[in-house]
Design goal:
The complex is a heterodimer of chains A (168) and B (276).
Chain A: H1 3-21, H2 39-43, H3 50-68, H4 73-93, H5 110-132, H6 138-163
Helix pairs in contact in A: 1-3, 3-4, 4-5, 5-6
Chain B: H1 2-10, H2 12-32, H3 45-58, H4 63-83, E1 102-111, E2 118-123, E3 136-138, E4 143-150, E5 155-162, E6 167-171, E7 177-181, E8 189-195, E9 206-209, E10 221-230, E11 237-243, E12 252-258, H5 261-271
Classes of the chains: A mainly alpha (168), B alpha+beta (276).
Chain lengths: 168, 276
């Protein structure tokens, strides 16, 4: 077991615990919660095993679902995000992303900002659509997505700055 | 054969994605259907334990409010006691346990949610304490929900603030029935639908549980009428009900078991022909 695997396992547990103990209980303005646990999917090594990413994203989403009593939407949104990560990389970093060793938590350049933002928007849109499961509520769903995206984005950036390892 | 294996191998990531997405979408769709229970809930040993630990720490911060609430309830019960006439002269009435209709189990909310359309909360009693599906859950102020799923030591409860929640309720003053639901918007208010037009409704009237409910005893308080609408399609009244409970801060609750529920349901099922 090498250090990358270990780091990712720790990240999985750490972000899940943080989500359950702190962020699921914020309820800003009565209904807004940030979901920074998806940092796990975003920070997963660029050239890492994609099957492992899909399965771990599914498990992470399922765990969050279990704690939040939502049954399903977090798992679905996380799996979709894990699958769409490569296209998003291509979109923001250009076609040659595979040949560079990108680490998102290296330095926050405009590309990294836009990558994180696209990931959060995609995840939250699917999450809230599945959670509401009612096209009659589409307007309020989109509004919640927007607010929550901003919230998650700010929290994610803060977390990245905080856990940015001195040497890695 | 070779080609099939090649195809599977080449698209293995995509197929894995489809499989996992399929599983999670199945869970999602299942949870939104009215008649099926959810597959993934927080009524299990792991999340129950975590929530209990969090709650253990957190309950210290609300001790003062809890004391106030208990003192208030004591005062209310004492005023009932003092205002009952001649209690000292009356011979004590011992009701045999076999003849009572309702049994009450005390419990505590360890995780609460109110930010979604379908909200559930988790309580610290499971089937070991005698909790079963579809028992009513009330607080000292009134109705808060009913049991959805139980594990050994924990249960999840469908909150009043859940768009799937249905409860037969009535206006206390004139006994007109309606169905209590929630429209998913404001955590302080629920809706009483299908109240007949001939009912006189006044803002401020008390809403209580109805007699036809097999889950709750009759006359448990729910809230007061806040606003009156007239449904354009059915011409029934829809009432906004201001809930007595603050659903965003629940602590100690009571689980009410109707001992005759099975009997009532059996009888009702035997009477109404099964739908084809």
């Amino acid at each position: 077991m090498n250090s990358t695997v270990l780091v990712n396992i720790l990240r999985f547990i750490g972000l899940l615990a943080l989500q359950v103990v702190v962020f699921n209980r914020l309820n800003m303005f009565g209904y807004l919660n940030p979901y920074p646990y998806i940092l796990f999917i975003m920070l997963f090594p660029v050239n890492g095993n994609r099957a492992a990413l899909l399965v771990s994203a599914f498990l992470l989403g399922l765990c969050v679902d279990m704690f939040a009593d939502t049954s399903g939407p977090h798992a679905a949104a996380s799996v979709v995000l894990a699958y769409l990560r490569r296209p998003f990389f291509k979109l923001t970093f250009g076609i040659s992303f595979e040949y560079q060793t990108i680490k998102i938590n290296d330095r926050l350049s405009p590309e990294r900002f836009s990558f994180i933002l696209i990931c959060i928007v995609a995840h939250h849109l699917i999450l809230y659509l599945l959670e509401a499961f009612d096209l009659g509520l589409i307007f309020s769903t989109l509004l919640t997505t927007l607010y929550s995206t901003i919230f998650t984005f700010i929290i994610s950036i803060i977390i990245i700055y905080l856990i940015k390892p001195a040497k890695e | 054969m070779q080609q099939i294996i090649n195809f599977l191998y080449k698209n293995s990531i995509f197929l894995l994605f489809l499989l996992l997405l399929g599983i999670s979408l199945t869970f999602t769709i299942q949870s939104h259907s009215y008649h099926r229970s959810r597959a993934v809930t927080s009524a299990n040993a792991v999340s129950g334990y975590v929530y209990e630990q969090i709650n253990n720490v957190e309950s210290y911060f609300s001790l003062r409010e809890q004391n106030d609430a208990l003192a208030y309830e004591n005062a209310r019960l004492q005023s009932l006691l003092y205002n009952t006439q001649d209690t000292a002269n009356r011979p004590p009435v011992n009701i045999d346990a076999a003849f009572t209709d309702y049994k009450v189990i005390q419990s505590k909310v360890i995780a609460n949610a109110y930010s979604r359309q379908e909200n559930y909360f988790t309580i610290k009693s499971g089937y070991k304490a005698g909790v079963r599906k579809d028992m009513g859950v009330v607080s000292s102020l009134g109705v808060v929900g009913y049991i959805e799923q139980t594990s050994a030591n924990y249960s999840t409860v469908i909150s009043v603030l859940n768009t799937k929640f249905r409860l037969g309720a009535k206006i206390k003053k004139n006994n007109h029935f309606g169905t209590l639901t929630w429209n998913g918007k404001n955590t302080g208010y629920a809706q009483l639908r299908d109240v007949p037009r001939l009912a006189t409704v006044n803002i401020g009237d008390t809403i209580v549980t109805g007699a036809e409910s097999t889950i709750f005893p009759e006359n448990i308080p729910i809230g007061t009428i806040h606003k009156v609408y007239q449904d354009k399609v059915t011409n029934y009244f829809t009432l906004d009900v201001r809930l007595f409970n603050d659903m965003t801060s629940l602590n100690y609750v009571y689980i009410v078991e109707n001992k005759h529920r099975d009997e009532i349901i059996q009888l009702q099922e035997a009477t109404t022909p099964a739908p084809k």
